[in-house]
């Protein structure tokens, strides 16, 4: 009994020291402490940071629709909101390759998606008549693997190169754009320049990035960034950087782009815990910054549509769509709006999701899956809004279905 008490005290002291060093350390929980708290995890060999697997994991995925796809391909650029397995191949704490992640996915296995099931681009791929898009690092590199799309997204990635670097390796926005260009070169070598450019110009490019520039950079005041940039200036910098990368894509014959705004991370369980929210109320200071980012980014998209001939660039306001769900949770079938399905501490926001024992039995009635990521059910609602404005209009100047109809005329 004395030994157990000693172990409990030792564990408690380690946790306190970690949190005193940096409250965000809950995002980069040390493997030694994970092993101590959850010894069963150590038996399956799933370390938080490990070497890339020798072979890409076999992942049976739903086939494309029997009807012809609406577009040739879907290409995805972004962070953990749309990472489908990139970080499985990197040395990083930002991994979703162990249960309970993926428990409600089609294969009921973790795939690297930061969700209990599907992420938004999975639902969009099916709406487009395409199969789920493979990770750039998770396929063989042959053109046949990439011909219907590639997912370059990496958890922890940001617009700023160093955002999320304390978690370990990730692939930043600029690096993802370079991977896109490498893919285009392979297309040109394989099918010829004209055919490759035609395919690229008719495909959809989906960009979802920026949250980590707040979570892991601005809100942590890395390099005293808050004394150098007020939120408005910081948002202008992020938006202009994204604008330049979209222009680079346009110069490579990309014409159809969906730019996702940021979700209300001020409502995420991690920040509810960190700022000691009363009754699950969102952290207004953080959400005000996100609202501002979305405003600036929407204006940037409007500028690009005026500047770039034949470009169809859509801005989809994830904040607007998410707040509609939070405010009208009963209509959507949710009854847990603030607590994460998987996590420890108040709101499930203190410690990241690292064990099936930490997860609720039914994620479908939860808005939040873990500290930062929504459940599969929320992802489906948001994807339907992007596709057809089914629940609420959150895409400007048109939704994805309208963009496709416009291109077919």
UniProtKB/TrEMBL annotation:
Stored CDD domains: SGNH_plant_lipase_like
Protein name: Triacylglycerol lipase
Domain of life of the organism encoding this protein: Eukaryota
Organism encoding this protein: Handroanthus impetiginosus
GO biological process per UniProt: lipid catabolic process
Signal peptide (UniProt feature, chain positions): 1-26
Keyword Signal applies: yes
Assigned EC number: 3.1.1.3
Stated family: Belongs to the 'GDSL' lipolytic enzyme family.
UniProt entry keywords in alphabetical sequence: Hydrolase, Lipid degradation, Lipid metabolism, Signal
InterPro entries per record: GDSL, GDSL_Est/Lipase, SGNH_hydro_sf, SGNH_plant_lipase-like
Classification of source organism: Eukaryota, Viridiplantae, Streptophyta, Embryophyta, Tracheophyta
One GO molecular-function entry: triacylglycerol lipase activity
């Amino acid at each position: 009994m004395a030994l157990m008490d000693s172990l409990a005290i030792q564990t408690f002291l380690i946790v306190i020291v970690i949190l005193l060093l940096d409250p965000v350390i809950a995002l980069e929980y040390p493997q030694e402490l994970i092993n101590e708290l959850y010894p069963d995890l150590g038996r399956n060999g799933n370390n938080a940071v490990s070497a890339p697997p020798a072979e890409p994991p076999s992942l049976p995925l739903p086939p494309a629709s029997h009807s012809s796809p609406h577009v040739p391909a879907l290409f995805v650029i972004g962070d953990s909101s749309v990472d489908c397995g990139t970080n499985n191949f990197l040395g990083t704490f930002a991994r979703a390759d162990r249960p309970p992640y993926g428990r409600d996915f089609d294969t009921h296995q973790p795939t690297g998606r930061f969700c209990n099931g599907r992420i938004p681009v999975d639902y969009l791929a099916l709406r487009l008549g395409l199969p789920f898009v493979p990770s750039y690092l998770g396929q063989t590199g042959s053109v046949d693997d990439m011909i219907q799309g590639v997912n370059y997204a990496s958890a922890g990635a940001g617009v700023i190169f160093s955002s999320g670097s304390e978690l370990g390796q990730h692939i930043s926005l600029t690096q993802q754009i370079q991977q896109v260009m490498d893919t285009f070169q392979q297309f040109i070598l394989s099918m010829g320049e004209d055919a490759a450019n035609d395919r690229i110009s008719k495909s959809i490019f989906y960009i979802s990035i920026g949250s980590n520039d707040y979570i892991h950079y601005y809100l942590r005041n890395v390099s005293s960034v808050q004394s150098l940039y007020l939120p408005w200036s910081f948002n202008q910098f992020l938006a202009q950087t994204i604008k330049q990368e979209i222009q680079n894509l346009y110069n490579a014959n990309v014409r159809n782009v969906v730019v996702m705004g940021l979700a209300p991370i001020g409502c995420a369980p991690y920040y509810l815990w960190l700022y000691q929210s009363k009754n699950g109320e969102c952290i207004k200071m953080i959400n005000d910054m996100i609202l501002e980012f979305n405003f600036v980014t929407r204006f940037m998209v409007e500028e690009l549509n005026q500047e770039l001939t034949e470009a169809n660039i859509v801005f989809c306001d994830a904040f607007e769509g998410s707040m509609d769900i939070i405010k009208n949770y009963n209509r959507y079938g949710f009854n847990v709006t603030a607590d994460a399905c998987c996590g420890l501490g108040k709101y499930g926001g203190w410690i990241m999701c690292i064990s099936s024992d930490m997860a609720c039995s039914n994620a479908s009635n939860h808005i939040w899956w873990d500290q930062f990521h929504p459940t599969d059910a929320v992802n489906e609602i948001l994807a339907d809004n992007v596709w057809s404005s089914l629940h609420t209009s959150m895409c400007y100047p048109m939704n994805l279905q309208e963009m496709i109809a416009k291109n077919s005329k």
